[in-house]
Amino acid sequence: MAFLFDPANPWGWTVLKLLHIVGLSVALLIILAFLLLMDRKVWAAVQLRKGPNVVGAFGLLQSFADLMKFVLKEVIVPAGANKPVFLLAPLVSFTLALAAWAVVPIAPGWVVADINVGFLYIFAISSLGVYGVIMGGWASNSKYPFLGGLRSAAQMVSYEVSIGFVVITVLLLVGSLNLTTIVTHQKGGFWHWHVWPLLPMFVVFYVSALAETNRPPFDLPEAESELVAGFAVEYSSTPYLLFQIAEYLNIVLMCSMMTVLFWGGWLPPFDWAPLYYIPPVLWFFAKVVFFFWTFAMVKAMVPRYRYDQLMRLGWKIFLPTSLAYVLLVAGFLVLTQTAPPAGG
User: Fold this and answer.
1) N or C: more exposed end of the chain, with fewer CB within 10 A?
2) CA dist 129 to 19, 64, 287, Å?
3) Where are the domains of the chain?
C-alpha cells in the first residue's frame, strides 16, 4: 500500500493531492464556522448586545446548531422556478468559492497547486462566481431576485477592474503572479511589505473586496430595505446555506489575498530569529482574522451606499486612481532601473 502515498508515483501523487484538498476543505469550513460566530459577536458588541451565547460555552457551537437547522429543513422550490437551474446555482457558487483556495499559500509548501499564474487563476474563478448569483436570481422567476442578480453582475464586474489594476502594481514590483513568490519577495521585516509603497492600492483593494463579496456597505444585491433579500429571496434550507458559505468563503479569500499581496503572508513582522519559532501558518491566520474583524466592524458601523454611489465610486474614482498608480509604479521602476526580471 506504500505506493499509494509515494509522490513519485502518479497514483500516489493523486491520492496525496486528494487528501490535501479534503483536509484544506474541512479545515476551511470549520474555521469558517467560528469566523461566522466572530462576525455575529462583533456586530452584537457594537450594538451593546451579547450575541450568540447559549449553544455551547460562550455560544461557540452556535454555527454548528445553525448548520443542523438548515440541513434538516425542507427544501422549497417555487412553483414557477426553473428547478434544475434553481438548485444548481448555490452549488455553482459554493464549488467556485472553494476551488479558488487551491492556489492560496498559507505557509511554505502549504498550497494545493503552486502555479505561476496563481492570482490570475483566482481572478478567473471569482469572475465565474457571479454566474451562481445570476442563475439563482433568474431561475427564481421573481422580480426581487432577478433585480438582485442584475445588480450583483454589474457590481462585481465594476470592482474586478480596479482589483485587476491593483494586482498589476504588485506584479510590477515582484515580476511574478505566483503567490508564494509574492510572499517571499516581502521577507526581511514589515518595512519590506508591499503595503507601504502601495498604500493607496491597498485601500482600493480593501474597499473593492467589500464590494466584490457583496459585503456591507455594498450589499446592494441583497438589500433587505429594497429587495427583501435580493437574489436569495426564494431560497431556504441547504441551498440558502450554500450561498451563505460561498459568500463567507469569498470574504476570507479576500482577507487572505490582502495578507499575501500586501502584508507579508506568513512572514513575521520582524526578521528576528525567535519569531520564526512561531509556525508560519499562525502568522498567516492572525493577519486574516484581523482583516475579517475589520470587515465585521465595517458591516456594523458604515451605512449602506446607494446604487449610483456604488457605481460612481468604482468607475469614476477607483478606476482612474488605480490606472494612474500603475503608470506611476511602472514609470518609477523604469527611471530607477529597479524593475524585477519577468517571472522572477
Assistant:
1) N
2) 25, 26, 25
3) 1-70, 73-336
